[in-house]
Amino acid sequence: MIKDTSEVTTLYSPIFLEHRPRDYHPENPDRLLRAVRALQRLNLWKPIEPVPVPEEELLMVHSRDYVELIREKSRAFSYLDPDTYVSPGTWEAALTAFGASQMAVEIALKTGGMALALVRPPGHHAGKAGRAFNASTLGFCIFNNAAYAAKVAEELAGKVLIIDFDAHHGNGTQEILWNDPNAVHIDLHERDIYPWSGYEHDVGGKNAEGTKINLPMPHYSGDDDYIYAWDEVVLPLLAQLRPKLVVVSAGFDGFLGENLTTLRLSELFFAYAGSTLSRYPLAVIFEGGYSVGLGKGLPAFIRGYLSGEIREVPVSPSYEALRTVARVKEVQSEWWEF
Ligand SMILES: [Zn+2]
């Protein structure tokens, strides 16, 4: 069924532009403005301004020491590691990003549609106390917006499904939710790149086994490979879980031409992914995407969601993609039916 554009709510604040690099950096305020222009072209630009959460809310997903470290460091510009900076606007932006994530969950549950938290700084690499699963850096992330959205969703709906299609593994999200049986997390990403985690056999901690599903996709994967993985793993899980809400960690850096990874995704994959989720309330949390993916991948995902029709897309995945998906299904068949 075709959805009405009123079923997309965007949460945005100019405060998100105040997390600023000093010199050129791929994670910069222009990214958000690109995304804003894409939404304007879709006639979907009627943002609601979120409010910052109280500081204690950060402790839902982060340690007190890490929260204090960020608060102190962001009084001036500094680098936390070779990838990740903080600036005087970071603290307020990060608290407001949590506010947007919380509102996205509440609005999606209320309307049954999509609520898009168009936030910076991004979050999915941020673990409980900073770097997650021995990652070398925080990968541009400060506080984990998606993990917080998942916790808010659990309070309101009991269980939650998180789907992360950013090109990189959502290691921070997975670390925070590792032992949480009520948070099912599916993560598609390019294998063997930063943050060097998220393999087939990583299935969740004690009493949460099978709630973490990693699809480490081969280098150079494109639409056929991703749609194949989506059909074979994501759709069966959706059918078995029938979640009341899906949190999407939405990164568009796998788009062909983003040049941060070898992935070669196009509008086809993002529109398809969106269309298969159209029956669910979505809290979409903005992650990566630095150039062409924002202008093309983001609107394709939204258009797919609004189109409401799941079209069968014939695909011819690579041999490596077939093997990867077969391994994931074999490991996960202990908990899921495929
Ligand atoms: Zn990424």
TrEMBL record:
Keywords: Hydrolase. GO terms for molecular function: histone deacetylase activity; hydrolase activity. The keyword Hydrolase applies. Residues 25-292 form the Histone deacetylase domain. InterPro entries: HDACs (IPR000286), His_deacetylse_dom (IPR023801), His_deacetylse_dom_sf (IPR037138), Ureohydrolase_dom_sf (IPR023696). The keyword Transport does not apply. GO terms for biological process: epigenetic regulation of gene expression. PANTHER family: HISTONE DEACETYLASE HDAC1 (PTHR10625:SF10), HISTONE DEACETYLASE HDAC1-RELATED (PTHR10625). This is Acetylpolyamine amidohydrolase, histone deacetylase superfamily.
